[in-house]
Structure formats: structure tokens, C-alpha cells
């Protein structure tokens, strides 16, 4: 029996010596000059020497080696105590700004008690003539003191930081508790229990991985501790498979023992089914991928420092306006996370269409995506970062994303990051191919999602602010309209008086008659405008309006301008449902803008044609033209104008009213060449049919 215990003891301490030695060597290589790291290395190295001395004693039986082993045990305990005191002083210093780098005064009592405990342990060594009970008592006192010191250290750590030191506390707590059990039994029975003493090395070896986990979780110890992910993956898979097979074997044995005649058959069937199921699971790509993600999330340090990355994204978004718009800042913030040179951001407008609002190192693409498309719904429902490289190679991690056509045509696009805020897809960011190959794993995707949510909140807040400002401007405009109505009333009264006097004192009959007709027309228009501003007539009331006569009237009213607008001959008689005065006002505004932008030697023309079931009104000019950026960002926005006396609502009203009628308004312009407005309105079918029937009769 003693021979077997000696062999167990030898294997136990040999295993502990090798494991501590390798770990101490690794810590020495990974050390980055930290105070806590020094004491941890000393404790691990002392443990390795202590285990080696006990291994030599177990194989040789030399008494002086046993004394050396206990001396090394003193050094080992002293190193662990020094490590705990250093950690304790650091934890207290982090909680006390008045004594940075030093423990509180009360902690000196703990340090003094620790020194006394180590001295007592040293004096109680089993030298010749030292009673065994004395050695057991002092060793028991030292182990108890280790538990007290460990408890003080764990309590001094803040709640949010205990995740990093919990494995260390479990490891040292288990070792100190094992020593308490060993020396208590020694003190009670005045003997060293060979079995307990023999497995002490195994106990230290089993606790060492927990110390390694804490070292990897605490970068402030200045260790660069890392473990191969492939080794952990295969080890975990192997251990899980072994555990699974043991459970299956136990269940098979139970069936065979209690199953009677069917027991052996059921056992074989269960074993075959269990091994077959294990093979299916082991060779399943989805299971292996999920296992890798699980291990990476729970057993390894993250690739990114999320606190630093979050602060960086916040800083990038908060400085929007210093040379970069918000959209450009969002693109830059997300691109910097994955080494991308740039990209573009598509934001939803008031009509539910996602258009490119900003870009960085990326050409402007006139691509649009509606919010009711399958791709937009997919981004909103799944909140999935789409890797276009995987989509093009028909590999999408088991997802079938309904990709738009433009995603496959543009080869330089890489990732599409959704911007979701409060359950709404505010927009999405398209990132370009990175400068260097980047492994897009779960951590990169989580980081992009985090940054995307934060950017979406900025966009949502900006849109809400713009909507509020626009509402306030319209409110101010409405208040101004009350003063306009008052002024119009005075003008109408003055013009009425002028008409009465002019009829009595006219000198040139023809001139005065023409003047009276003009003034009378202006008076009628003013009264109509005043009635609309005072909401006496509904502005949205629709009725059939003949476009040909309406356009001819607009061109005729502008005949005094230079250049004089012209209307193409052969225009068809087309009717649309609209408010005649409002339609005349917006079309007249477009013609007037063309006249204002064209020099006297230029030309302005108006055309009316039919395209299927739509009436197409085209206004051409050879004026100064507009840039694509102005058309995209300013032309149809309210209160945006380049005229000194303009209010910037004419083009906005035209665009809104045409869409309200179910039509469309397109602008084609080139700086220095001219502009072409194309207004398409649905034809009033019943009016057209009535006109055709009358012509046939």
C-alpha cells in the first residue's frame, strides 16, 4: 500500500512541478514589467521548486530533501502572500484618491499579521527536535491567515472587477482550504496522512489553470497571456465528446443490467445511435461554427477594447461639422473600425426612399432603395451586417438576403451596415473594400452593429431637429401671411380708388383702357390670393383643368419679359384633375425661374405632349444651369434659395403639389448650358374620353 501511495505522490508532485515550471516560463516571456506580475512569477516558480523537491523526496526518501521542500513551501506561501498584499494595496488605492499607490492605514495591520504568520511558519519547520504538533499548528495558522487575506482582497475588489479575479480567488481558496484540511488532520492525529499528502501536488496542478484565466483577464498585471483558439476548440470538442460517450455508456450499462433479455440488444442499439449522433454533430459545420463563437465569447479576451472603440466612435460623431458633415463622419467612424478607406451612407427621406446623402472616398451613385423593398425589410428585421463578398461567392452563413440588383454590379462595395434607431431603419452605410484583408467574424459584426446603432440615433435626432425647425419656419411663414393679407386689403382699396379716378381723368383712351384691364386683372388675382390665404376657398379642391389653354395663358402673361417665352405648336388638348389657380401658380413659377436664369439673347420654351396615360410638360431654357449637388441638396428644400429677395418655397411647393397629384417632377441641368424641367401628371381619363367622343360625333 505504501508503495502505491509513494508512486501516486511521485506522479502528483512531478505533474505539478512540470505544469508550474512551464507556466512560470510562459509568464516570464509574457511579462511586461508589472509589479503584480513579478510576485505572481515568483509564486509560480517557488511552487514549481517546492513540487520538484517533494518529487525527489517521494522517489528517494532523503530526509534533508523533505526539509528543503518545507523551506520552499515557506517561500511559496510568502510569494503568494506578497502577491495578494500587492493586489490588495492596488485595489484599496483605486478606491482611495488620498493615498494613491498605497494601502489604507488599516491594511498595515494585515500586512504585519502576514509577516508574523510567515515567520511562525518558518520557525515551525519540522527540524530535528521540533514537535509535529507545533509544525501542524503553525502551518494551520498560516493557511487560515491565507484564507483571511484572500477574503479581504476579494471584498476590496469592486463588483464590476470581480469577474477578472474570481478564478484566482477560487484557486487560492481551494489550496488554502486543502492545507487547512491537511494540517487539521495532522494536528488531531499527530501524523502525516500519506494519501492527503500525496495528492497535494495534483490539487495545486488542478488549481493552476484558474490562475492562468485570471492572468488573461487582467491586462493591468501586464501579462500578454493568450491561448491558441484551435487548441481550446479541439480540446473542448474532445472533452465534450468523451463526456457524451461516458453518459451513453452509463445509460447502456443501466439498460443491460436492468433490461433482462433485451438488455444487451438495447445497449448495442443505444451505443450505435449515440456514436452516430455524435458523428453527425461533430461533422456539422453549423455546430462547429457555434462552438467556436461560444468559446471565443466566453473563454478569450476580446480583440477590441470596446471602451476605447466606443469613445472613438462617439468622438468621431460629436465633431461632425468641423470640415465633415454628419454623414461623412458616420462613414469615417465605421470605416476606421475595419480598415476601410471610405464608403457612403444612404438615409431615408420623407417619401420613404433611401438615397445617398454623403460619401467619403467614394463616387456618387444615383442608387435608391425603397423602405418597402425586401432588402430594406431584411436589414430592419434581422439587423444583419451584409458581407457582399460572401454574397457574391454564394456563401452567406445560412442567410438568404434579398439583395438589390445594384449590390452585385458594384465590385468595390464590401459591407452594408444597417442604421436602426427605435425600431426604424434610418439608413444604411456601404463600406468599401478594406486596405488589408480583415477577418469579418462575430466580434467585428458586433462592433459594427454597436457603432451603427449609435450613428442611427444621431441621424434620427438630426431628422427630428430638422423637422422641428421646418415646422417652426412654416409657423413663422403662416404668421407672416396674416400681415400679407392685411397689406393686400390696403392694396385692393387703393387700386379701387385709382380705378375710379382713372375713369374720370384718362387722357389716352386706348392706353387707359389697357391699363384698366391690367389693373382689373391684378385686382382679381389679389382678391383670389387673399381668399386663399384667408381659407375662404379650399386650396385642394380639384376639377378638370385644360393644360393647353393654361400654358398658353402663362406664356401670354410673360410676353413682356426678355427673352419672350414660346410654346410649341401642335400641343394636344389634355386635361388633368387639379386646382387650376394653384397649378397655374407652380407652372408659372417654373417658367419665371427659367426667365430669371436666362439672358436676353437666350431662349425659353414650353412644350406639352402625351406619354401613355400621362401629360408631359417640358420647360427648357438656355440659362446658367444648376449643379447636381444643388439639385440634390437644395433645390426642393424649403427656405433654400439663391435669390436675394426669394423665400425658397416656390420649387418646394411645385415638387410637393406635383407628387400630391400623383405625378413626378424631374430636373436635368448642366452648368453653363441650361435646364430642362419635366412635369408628368396623370391625365383625367373621363374628360379626355368625353372630348374624343364629341370630336367623333
Q: Can you give a write-up of this model?
A:
- 63% of the residues lie in helices and 11% in strands.
- With 697 residues, the protein is α+β, with helices and mostly antiparallel strands.
- It has 4 domains: 2-226, Rhopdopsin 7-helix transmembrane proteins, CATH 1.20.1070; 230-299; 313-537, Beta-Lactamase; 543-696, Histidine kinase-like ATPase, C-terminal domain (Heat Shock Protein 90), CATH 3.30.565.10.
- The protein has a 6-stranded antiparallel beta sheet with strand order 3-2-1-6-5-4, sandwiched between helices.
- Strand 1 (343-348) and strand 2 (353-360) form a beta hairpin.
- The protein is elongated.
User: What is the mean pLDDT?
Assistant: 76
Helical content class: 55-70%
Question: Strand tally, please?
Answer: 13
Q: Given the helix and strand composition, which structural class is it?
A: alpha+beta
| Termini Cα gap | 126 Å
CATH topology of the largest domain: Rhopdopsin 7-helix transmembrane proteins
Residues in β-strands, percent: 5-15%
Shape: elongated
Number of helices: 23
Largest sheet: 6 strands, antiparallel
**CATH first level of the largest domain:** Mainly Alpha
The radius of gyration computed from the alpha-carbon positions, rounded to a whole number of angstroms, is 43 Å
Which CATH architecture of the largest domain?
Up-down Bundle
The stretches of 5 or more residues where confidence is low (pLDDT under 50) are 96-106, 395-399, 688-697
Number of domain modules: 4
Amino acid at each position: 500500500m505504501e508503495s502505491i501511495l509513494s508512486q501516486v505522490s511521485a506522479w502528483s508532485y512531478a505533474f505539478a512541478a512540470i505544469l508550474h515550471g512551464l507556466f512560470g516560463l510562459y509568464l516570464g516571456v509574457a511579462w511586461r514589467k508589472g509589479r503584480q506580475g513579478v510576485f505572481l512569477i515568483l509564486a509560480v516558480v517557488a511552487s514549481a521548486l517546492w513540487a520538484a523537491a517533494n518529487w525527489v523526496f517521494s522517489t528517494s526518501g532523503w530526509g534533508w530533501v523533505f526539509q528543503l521542500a518545507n523551506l520552499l513551501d515557506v517561500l511559496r506561501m510568502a510569494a503568494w502572500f506578497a502577491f495578494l498584499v500587492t493586489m490588495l494595496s492596488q485595489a484599496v488605492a483605486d478606491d482611495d484618491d488620498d493615498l494613491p499607490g498605497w494601502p489604507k492605514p488599516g491594511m498595515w495591520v494585515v500586512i504585519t499579521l502576514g509577516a508574523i504568520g510567515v515567520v511562525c511558519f518558518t520557525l515551525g519547520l519540522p527540524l530535528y527536535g521540533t514537535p509535529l504538533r507545533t509544525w501542524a499548528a503553525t502551518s494551520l495558522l498560516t493557511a487560515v491567515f491565507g484564507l483571511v487575506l484572500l477574503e479581504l482582497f476579494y471584498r476590496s475588489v469592486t463588483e464590476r472587477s470581480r469577474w477578472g479575479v474570481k478564478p484566482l480567488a477560487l484557486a487560492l481558496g481551494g489550496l488554502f482550504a486543502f492545507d487547512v484540511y491537511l494540517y487539521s488532520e495532522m494536528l488531531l492525529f499527530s501524523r502525516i496522512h500519506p494519501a492527503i499528502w500525496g495528492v497535494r501536488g495534483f490539487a495545486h496542478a488542478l488549481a493552476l489553470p484558474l490562475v492562468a484565466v485570471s492572468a488573461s483577464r487582467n491586462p493591468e498585471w501586464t501579462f500578454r497571456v493568450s491561448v491558441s483558439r484551435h487548441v481550446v476548440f479541439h480540446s473542448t470538442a474532445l472533452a465534450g465528446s468523451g463526456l457524451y460517450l461516458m453518459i451513453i455508456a452509463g445509460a447502456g450499462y443501466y439498460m443491460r443490467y436492468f433490461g433482462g433479455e433485451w438488455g444487451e440488444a438495447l445497449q448495442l442499439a443505444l451505443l450505435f445511435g449515440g456514436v452516430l449522433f455524435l458523428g453527425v454533430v461533430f461533422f456539422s459545420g453549423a455546430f462547429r461554427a457555434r462552438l467556436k463563437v461560444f468559446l471565443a465569447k466566453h473563454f478569450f479576451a476580446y480583440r477590441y477594447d470596446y471602451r476605447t472603440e466606443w469613445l472613438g466612435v462617439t468622438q468621431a460623431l460629436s465633431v461632425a461639422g468641423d470640415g465633415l458633415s454628419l454623414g461623412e463622419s458616420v462613414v469615417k467612424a465605421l470605416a476606421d473600425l475595419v480598415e476601410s478607406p471610405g464608403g457612403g451612407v444612404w438615409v431615408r427621406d420623407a417619401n420613404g426612399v433611401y438615397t445617398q446623402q454623403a460619401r467619403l472616398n467614394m463616387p456618387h451613385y444615383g442608387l435608391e432603395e425603397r423602405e418597402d423593398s425586401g432588402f430594406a425589410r431584411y436589414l430592419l428585421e434581422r439587423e444583419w451586417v451584409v458581407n457582399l463578398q460572401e454574397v457574391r461567392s454564394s456563401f452567406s452563413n445560412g442567410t438568404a438576403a434579398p439583395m438589390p440588383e445594384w449590390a452585385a454590379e458594384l465590385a468595390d462595395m464590401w459591407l452594408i451596415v444597417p442604421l436602426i434607431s427605435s425600431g426604424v431603419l434610418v439608413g444604411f452605410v456601404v463600406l468599401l473594400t478594406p486596405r488589408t484583408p480583415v477577418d469579418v467574424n462575430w466580434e467585428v459584426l458586433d462592433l459594427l452593429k454597436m457603432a451603427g446603432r449609435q450613428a442611427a440615433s444621431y441621424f434620427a435626432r438630426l431628422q427630428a431637429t430638422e423637422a422641428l425647425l421646418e415646422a417652426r419656419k412654416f409657423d413663422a411663414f403662416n404668421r407672416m401671411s396674416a400681415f400679407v393679407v392685411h397689406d393686400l386689403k390696403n392694396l385692393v382699396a387703393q387700386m379701387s380708388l385709382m380705378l375710379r379716378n382713372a375713369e374720370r381723368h384718362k387722357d389716352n383712351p386706348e392706353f387707359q383702357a389697357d391699363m384698366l384691364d391690367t389693373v382689373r386683372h391684378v385686382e382679381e388675382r389679389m382678391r383670389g390670393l387673399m381668399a386663399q390665404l384667408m381659407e375662404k376657398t379650399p386650396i385642394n379642391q380639384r376639377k378638370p383643368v385644360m393644360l393647353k389653354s393654361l400654358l398658353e395663358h402663362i406664356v401670354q402673361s410673360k410676353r413682356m419679359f426678355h427673352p419672350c417665352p414660346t410654346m410649341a405648336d401642335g400641343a394636344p388638348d389634355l386635361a388633368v384633375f387639379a386646382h387650376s389657380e394653384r397649378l397655374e401658380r407652380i407652372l408659372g413659377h417654373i417658367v419665371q425661374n427659367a426667365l430669371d436664369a436666362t439672358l436676353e439673347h437666350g431662349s425659353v420654351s414650353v412644350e406639352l405632349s402625351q406619354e401613355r396615360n400621362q401629360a408631359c410638360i417640358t420647360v427648357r431654357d438656355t440659362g446658367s444651369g444648376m449643379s447636381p449637388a444643388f439639385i440634390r441638396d437644395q433645390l426642393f428644400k424649403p427656405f433654400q434659395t439663391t435669390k436675394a429677395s426669394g423665400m425658397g418655397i416656390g420649387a418646394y411647393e411645385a415638387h410637393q403639389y406635383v407628387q400630391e397629384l400623383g405625378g413626378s417632377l424631374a430636373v436635368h441641368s448642366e452648368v453653363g448650358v441650361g435646364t430642362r424641367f419635366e412635369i408628368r401628371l396623370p391625365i383625367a381619363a373621363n374628360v379626355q374620353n368625353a372630348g374624343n367622343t364629341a370630336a367623333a360625333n
